[in-house]
Amino acid sequence: MRRLLSLGTLVLIAVVGAAVPRDAAAQDATAFVRTLGTEAIQVLGPSVSPAQRLARFRQLFHDDFDVAGIGRFVLGRYWNTATPPQQQEFLQLFQEYVVQAYTSRLAQYGGEPFRVTGARPAGDEVIVGSEVVRAGGSRVQIDWYLINRGGQFKITDVYVGGVSMKVTQRDEFAAIIQHDGGRIDGLIARLRQKTALAQ
């Protein structure tokens, strides 16, 4: 399995009332992406131990991403054919797989400058643009898609360099499932193995 999220799994939460205007919601989302994105980059820095990175990253992903919504999207039509126990196990393994795969991968960006470049409404969501400036001067563009769920923002997708995290992962998982005859057992078994080996 190739990449999952790319730079995706950093952070953000924002609390806004249901009656808050859309432009105000975008401003709040921008502030939280700026603050918590910078914090996440620092957590991934070289002075932080791998165990601390893993624990912090797991907490951020659990708290700030719409794990259930992303997981359902990633499984696509196979979500409805999975049994409830399969759905539950998949979501748990999916979350842990993302955490383990990207804690080490994202460490290369640790300590580098992170900045928010703007925000715009998109239907029920707010898209917050940001970038990480690499040591050599190159810039990595990251667009965060957020939705307000019960007064709290959750990340529903991350585009890195114009590529959607969840669309990419859906395509990869669908190929694995199709290879196994349309059953998700093979995908779950692979995720079990992958997460167990990384522990």
* Spatial order of the strands forming the largest sheet: 1-2-3-4-5
User: What is the β-strand count?
Assistant: 5
Shape: globular
Mean pLDDT: 80
The tally of structural domains comes to 1
Major pleated sheet? 5 strands, antiparallel
Q: Please state roughly what percent of the residues sit in beta strands, choosing from under 5%, 5-15%, 15-25%, 25-35%, 35-45% or over 45%.
A: 15-25%
Query: What is the helix/strand order?
Result: HHHHHEEEEEHH
CATH superfamily: Tgt2/MlaC
Detailed description of the structure:
With 199 residues, the chain is α+β, with helices and mostly antiparallel strands. The protein has a single domain, classed as Roll (Nuclear Transport Factor 2, Chain: A), CATH 3.10.450.710. It has helices at 22-43, 50-64, 67-75, 78-81, 84-106, 165-179, 185-198, and strands at residues 114-122, 125-133, 139-149, 152-160, 163-164. Strands 1-2-3-4-5 form a 5-stranded antiparallel β-sheet. Strand 4 and strand 5 (163-164) form a beta hairpin. It is globular, with a radius of gyration of 17 Å. The two termini are 17 Å apart. The model is unreliable at 1-24 (pLDDT under 50).
Concise summary:
With 199 residues, the chain is an alpha+beta fold. The protein is built from 7 helices and 5 strands; from the N terminus they run αααααβββββαα. A 5-stranded antiparallel beta sheet has the order 1-2-3-4-5.
